[in-house]
Amino acid sequence: MKTNKPIRMLACLMALGLAFSGFATQAADAPPSVLLETFACSYHDGKDMDDLLAARDYMVKQADKAGVSLAPSYVWSRFKGGPDLDTIWFTVHEDLTAFAAESEAFGAAPELAGVNARFGTVASC
């Protein structure tokens, strides 16, 4: 049986349209992308998690003084085995723009000038 060419073409176009609408739906439902800033660090001799958290507290206090909003951060401490490092610090930014805005604020605010030096006395990253 011979089919009509315009009908076949229409069926192919409809199939392609349905396929592409499925891709568009999946893209719309995809979660927003995030940027993960990561530091793998080893403590200096005599330093530990208490010193790291003290540096973090200093950073939070100085950021409050400067009016800078900090992204959420998490610290993983090595429990057993693995690579030769003590902690991994993760900061979760909404996207590259949020990361850039926080980085720029750190560079511009005089209150935050000593934060990196404070962390540098605790660990090498």
In short:
The protein has 125 residues and is an alpha+beta fold. Helix content is 50%, strand content 18%. It has helices at residues 5-29, 49-66, 96-108, 115-120, and strands at 35-43, 73-77, 87-93, 123-124.
Q: pLDDT average, as an integer?
A: 83
End-to-end C-alpha gap: 73 Å
Report on the biggest sheet: 4 strands, antiparallel
Helix-strand category: alpha+beta
- Helical proportion? 40-55%
Q: Which spans of ≥5 residues are poorly predicted at pLDDT below 50?
A: none
Number of helical regions: 4
Task: Provide the gyration radius in Å.
Answer: 25 Å
Shape: flat
The count of β-strands is: 4
- N-to-C SSE string, H for helix and E for strand: HEHEEHHE
Percent range for β-strand residues:
15-25%
Q: State the strand order across the main sheet.
A: 2-3-1-4
